[in-house]
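A reminder before we start the practical. When you read a complex entry, don't treat the lines as separate problems. The point of joint prediction is that each chain is placed relative to the others, so the output describes one connected object in space. Small molecules and nucleic acid strands, if listed, are placed in the same frame. In the example below there are two entries. Take a minute to note the order of the lines before looking further.
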Amino acid sequence: MADEGAEEAERETVEILEQLCRQPSVSVEGRALQETADLVEALLAESGFETRQLRAEAGAPSVWGELRGRSDWTLLLYNHYDVQPADPIELWDSPPFEPTIRDGRLYARGAADNKAQIALRLATIRRLAGDLPVTIRWIIEGEEEMASPNFDALVASHVDLLRADACLWEGDSLLMDGTPELTLGVKGALAVRLDVELLSGDAHSGAAAVVPNSAWRLVELLATLRDPSGRVLLDGYYDSVLEPTPAQRRAVSEGSASVEDELRTAYGVAKFLDGAQGETLRERLSFAPTANIAGIHAGYSGPGIKTITPAQASAWLDFRLVPDQHPDAMLGLLRTHLDRRGFADVRITVVAKAEPAVTPLDDPFAARAIAVAERLAGRPASIVPIAAGTLPVVASLARHVGVPGLAAPDNAVYYGSAAHAPNENIRLADIAPAIRYLVALLDELGS
Amino acid sequence: MADEGAEEAERETVEILEQLCRQPSVSVEGRALQETADLVEALLAESGFETRQLRAEAGAPSVWGELRGRSDWTLLLYNHYDVQPADPIELWDSPPFEPTIRDGRLYARGAADNKAQIALRLATIRRLAGDLPVTIRWIIEGEEEMASPNFDALVASHVDLLRADACLWEGDSLLMDGTPELTLGVKGALAVRLDVELLSGDAHSGAAAVVPNSAWRLVELLATLRDPSGRVLLDGYYDSVLEPTPAQRRAVSEGSASVEDELRTAYGVAKFLDGAQGETLRERLSFAPTANIAGIHAGYSGPGIKTITPAQASAWLDFRLVPDQHPDAMLGLLRTHLDRRGFADVRITVVAKAEPAVTPLDDPFAARAIAVAERLAGRPASIVPIAAGTLPVVASLARHVGVPGLAAPDNAVYYGSAAHAPNENIRLADIAPAIRYLVALLDELGS
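Here is the predicted structure of the whole assembly.
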């Protein structure tokens, strides 16, 4: 693709991205999902893809597309068109579903996670159309931000449509210093809601000397689950954790150290958990399973105070799992842990589950993707053997389709992208390198 | 007052109550406070009271009224026209600010706490007008549900208007078995909001292995404040607690045991805190200071899950205090407790403060009020030396005006009134005995 074509692809990326970001496709709220699927399907069809909408028994539709290239070698692309909720909405500087460009950035919910990548992959493929080096299959789902509750069933029932030689997941980007990053594995997850309900209704807190308080009980329960250093206290939680291989440890040790500064800057971290820093911090990000409180709600939370003893208290937790922790097994440990400590009455509702999944460091597709990245950047790539995040699709595709996959730097996010947070954004300058990488990788795969 | 007059007063009570309950006078939300004060003032003026609206430097107006009787002996009445918020609004069977009568009950926010008493006191005084045995002064404030932040200043600057021989606070009622209850003291309170803020914005929970979590830190902090038996763990919290007198202990021991069943029924309590029951339960309600979580909020609390590490976490706490725990001293203990345990960064915001205050069991007005109650009921009264609740006005009136006070059974609430909760209500059948008591007490005081 000539420079002119590249510039055209950049412009087209922004146009498509703005279209996508105007859709408030918040999956946990069930908003605009069909409309966004229709838009995505239309965009693929306009670009020459054969398209379909696929559905599991429940849930939002997934968009599938296929565009045949010069060779039968097939690359599967994975993306999602859904986004996180926009709240707390009052912290946004511009409306989350009105994409706004200022200071070289495009602000919108979903811009970084991950509509920019849909846009730049599509714009790139459009520019290559007629001379596409390999065959592309693409699956774009609508429930990733809910941990893809129906995607596994969908993959299982459409294996023929998804078969491919390799898969690019949601992508990585260049790091702050220009080093390309590639991710070869993802953590699993178990997300649950815990409910305590000791009273039939909120009580006047004057009676708090004798009336049991659901919020206190939730606090007591949560305090048994993790220590202040971050270590998870569930009995048996670490028993099934595999030691990282020497190659995985080396990748982390030799990889970019910039994640520490990126996290510090993005979230204003004064001190990391347990004082972690440097290689220790990066090892924990890759290899440490977690227990995270995503939310707590009990009683009154407004101006002033309402002097009540809350009848109900709830916590939303996500456990990030590493090989070979399986979500169902961890759920069993959680139930047993609570029962043993007198919390048998506490209700556990599973909100999401995902297996951890890892592509070996010596996979041939991985080697080619890494080589292209290092050639373009003129420096060693940063390899993440297991990412801190979760992508349930990886486990589903590995199990049902058997396709190896990874995340390569064909994406336009950066340390300040604020995915899942207010003022989510991408830098427009990050689009061009992502397009260049994708073009070079497709060339390499077609050769 | 003849029976006919009593029936008329009952009817008039319901009419006035409906008018009052249509006002959404939620003080923490600043709703309809001036309108409700105007309505209350107009109702008093129509009944022959000389009226004024009194204001401190800030806050909602209080309504003051005076109606001269046959003697100069002056009884001060205290009420409040403000109410608690109506949320969770979805749990109401009828709209909270549309008073609805069904099954002999009147449902509305504020019906029990405490608009019914305003209505029945006013209807009673109207019926006695022209032959009122004593002089009545009445102060009706608008910020009781916020713990009366401006009332102390208002009392201090209007001592002359409030001077009286005795005071009836917000009233008690007959217990389930018909035993009259009188309350001679109230606990104090310190209400605070605690804020933890470790990040500049919510983080993606994929990084939870190293990014600090404000919700976990709040849980760790709260777990240091109270043990599961309800004992408060603040260093020095019990040092200033006075032992109850033998007379106070006797009153609790000989008092009605029904509160246990009332609490069990009202709130569906399966097991009281620390397994308390019987006399132990009643002693704790009267004499034990508390630490209560009124609310917690952190991160996401909605359908599904939002996988974030929350930047901020907040808890709303109220400590109920007994003689001689002073709220400012307890605030100092809380700050020191947190600092000592490494929580110096946690912000404490005082939401409300009230001193505990107690009228001695041998006060002469108390003796007359008890005697009238026992004569009408034909049985011993239940005496509560210190109520579980808080009424800051009591401390203010005791300190600035020097008037002894108590709560007598001239009110129409019951164990199912659900004050501060959805479906707040009174039983219409409870109005008549309250009116009878007030008429008899006024007769006694004028003789």
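Discuss with your neighbour: Residues 115 and 362 of chain A are 30 Å apart (CA to CA). What might explain this?
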